[in-house]
Design brief:
about 90 residues, mainly alpha
């Protein structure tokens, strides 16, 4: 435990110290993000099952690859192993 008895604080100095206003909260940056609709989910499934890879589908539709893979798994689509090219 630290003893503060040797610390000399003048109460008048504390009264004259300006108080800062709280900083405004940052607004969420939603640029580049899209809301995922049912039509988007259908498009993801259609494009992936027609042969496109998840990365390409994600980039072209503006979603993260993990989002595309999550939607595919939710819809019961068998996800191909990564790194393997199917032609």
């Amino acid at each position: 435990m630290v003893a503060l008895s040797g610390l000399n604080i003048n109460p008048e100095d504390l009264a004259s110290t300006p108080v800062r206003a709280p900083l405004p909260r940052p607004v969420a940056d939603t640029r580049g993000r899209r809301r995922l609709r049912e039509a988007d989910k259908d498009e993801i499934v259609h494009r992936y099952t027609s042969g496109e890879d998840a990365r390409t589908v994600a980039e072209e539709l503006g979603f993260a690859k993990s989002t595309v893979l999550r939607i595919l798994r939710q819809r019961g689509v068998e996800v191909r192993p990564w790194g393997v090219r199917y032609r």
